[in-house]
Amino acid sequence: MKHENEHNHHNFAELLRSNGLKATPHRLRVLNEITQKDAAISQPDLEKKLGKEIDRVTLYRILASFEEKGLVHKIFDLNGTATYAICSDHCSENHHHDQHVHFICSVCNSVYCLAEITVPKVSLPTNFTLHSIAINAVGLCANCQKKV
Ligand SMILES: [Zn+2]
Ligand SMILES: [Zn+2]
Ligand SMILES: [Zn+2]
To answer: Which residues bind Fe cation per the record (predicted)?
Structure first.
């Protein structure tokens, strides 16, 4: 959340190029949509917003390339739906540093990065391989709090 303003002022084309991606109109469009709100955006919401301009397969490929190149990270919301948040740290290709806790609102299902709260180190039994750690704090977001 803290880095949101920085990203709004970012030159998206430059951001794409510095992550090894050509700044195509579709990629710029998707990146712009992902950074519209403080909260992460779900794949279905992106489809709804961009469906007329970008077909599903293309959108899927763009999101996969963003994730691979370290531009966005994926969080699963309370329904198990994939949501995407812009990477706040200096993530690079196949190397994400977004090991932070996410806040999920139990009313509106919005997902927020709590970039300051890092997940603990997990030591695994022999021959176990760690792929990711997901820790979610669940509660009421500020918007829903107002409506109570
Ligand atoms: Zn990342
Ligand atoms: Zn909410
Ligand atoms: Zn995050």
So the answer is: 96, 98
Give phi and psi for 71, each to the nearest 5.
Answer: -90, -40
Sign for the CA dihedral angle at 120, 100, 112, 142 comes to positive
CA-to-CA dists, residue 85 to 41, 126, 129, 134, 142, angstroms = 7, 33, 25, 14, 18
Amino acid at 139: G
CA distance 81 to 12: 26
CA 60 to centroid of ligand 1, rounded, Å: 17
Domains of the chain: 4-147 (1.10.10.10)
**Residues of the chain predicted below pLDDT 50:** 1-9
Ligand nearest to the CA of 89: 1
Q: Which residues pair with 95 in a beta bridge?
A: 92
Binding residues for Fe cation: 96, 98
Residue 37 CA to ligand 3 center (angstroms) comes to: 13
Residue 91's pLDDT is 87
Bridge partners, residue 82, by sequence: 76
What are the tokens at 63?
């999101």
Distance 137 CA to ligand 1 centre (A): 19
